[in-house]
């Protein structure tokens, strides 16, 4: 089982039993309240944005047999919702735990963490679930100051994006050797992947790709390698912030290229409306 377990408290008066809700994503924020309070918060939830887990989660208390309603949101929507509903209990990612992990009783948070997302992208660029999950994981690591982990995950994100672009380019002509090694049955090292991507990067200048983006990709590869392999490389918040601007620009550009190739974006990075 993947995902997390969200600890919540039964909202029935005079009960207060600790409850658990399994959720299949990392880095999201949970809010919970009595079902009869839904109408009170319904408009505020709608104003919070699109990044809300669709569907209503309900958890029944085994003691009082009453339900507690749970909404799970991404950070940006959670920030908006919390501003509109200060009184509602909230569970932040750091209070959730992995399935099978020993649970600790946690007090619901009343304030949103002040740490901004490291990869701050609009919903339009979440063109694939895998990329979206990796971005959530990077942001969670950064928020809780696991900076070395955040940098390694950032390298992994860049590697996946580059592989997919090369796959889109070469798979139709059976040139998979540009990203895959048949001898080892593995993808090529990231250094080779980036060099092969550099050869075709001119194809994407019309989408806004520049030499600066390429330099950022190469830099993220080097920084990720340092975090993954060096025992003396201690990544600080200052170091992470120093690469955030270039990292965001590179990731957004790679996502734009993939979105255009897949036909879900136009050449200006806008969503293509599906024909009915």
List strands and helices in order, with pairings.
Layout lengths: L3 E6 L8 E6 L5 E5 L4 H9 L10 E4 L6 E7 L1 H10 L5 E2 L37 H15 L3 H24 L9 E2 L4 E2 L2 H11 L10 H19 L7 H26 L14
What is the total domain count?
2
- The total of helices stands at 7
- The shape, in one word, is elongated
Strand-residue fraction?
5-15%
Helix content: 40-55%
Alpha-carbon Rg, integer: 21 Å
Would you list the SSEs in sequence order as H and E?
A: EEEHEEHEHHEEHHH
Which parts are unreliable, with pLDDT below 50 for 5 consecutive residues or more?
none
Strand order of the largest sheet: 4-5-3-6
Under CATH at level 1, the class of the largest domain stands as Mainly Alpha
Stated plainly, the CATH topology of the largest domain is called Four Helix Bundle (Hemerythrin (Met), subunit A)
What structural class is derived from the secondary structure elements? alpha+beta
Q: What is the annotated CATH architecture of the largest domain?
A: Up-down Bundle
The CA-CA distance between the termini, in Å, is 37 Å
Average of the residue pLDDT scores: 82
Q: What is the count of β-strands?
A: 8
Largest sheet: 4 strands, antiparallel
């Amino acid at each position: 089982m993947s995902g997390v377990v969200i600890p919540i408290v039964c909202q029935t008066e005079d009960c207060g039993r600790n409850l658990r809700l399994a959720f299949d994503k990392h880095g999201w924020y949970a809010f919970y309240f009595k079902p009869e309070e839904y109408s009170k918060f319904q408009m505020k939830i709608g104003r919070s944005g699109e990044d809300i887990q669709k569907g209503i989660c309900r958890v029944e208390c085994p003691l009082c047999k009453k339900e507690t309603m749970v909404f799970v949101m991404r950070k940006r929507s959670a920030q908006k919702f919390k501003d509109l509903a200060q009184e509602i209990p909230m569970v932040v990612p750091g209070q959730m735990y992995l399935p099978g992990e020993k649970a600790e009783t946690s007090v619901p948070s009343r304030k949103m963490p002040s740490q901004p997302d490291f990869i701050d992208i609009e919903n339009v660029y979440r063109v694939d679930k895998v990329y979206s999950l990796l971005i959530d994981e990077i942001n969670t690591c950064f928020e809780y100051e696991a900076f070395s982990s955040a940098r390694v995950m950032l390298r992994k994100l860049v590697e996946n994006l580059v592989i997919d672009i090369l796959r889109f380019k070469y798979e139709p002509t059976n040139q998979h050797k540009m990203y895959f090694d048949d001898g080892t049955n593995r993808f090529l090292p990231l250094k080779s992947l980036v060099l092969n991507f550099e050869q075709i990067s001119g194809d994407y200048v019309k989408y806004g790709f520049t030499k600066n983006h390429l330099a950022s990709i190469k830099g993220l590869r080097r920084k990720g390698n340092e975090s993954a392999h060096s025992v003396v490389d201690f990544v600080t918040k200052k170091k992470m912030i120093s690469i955030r601007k270039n990292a965001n620009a590179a990731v957004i550009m790679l996502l734009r290229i993939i979105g255009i190739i897949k036909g879900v974006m136009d050449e200006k990075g806008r969503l293509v409306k599906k024909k009915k």
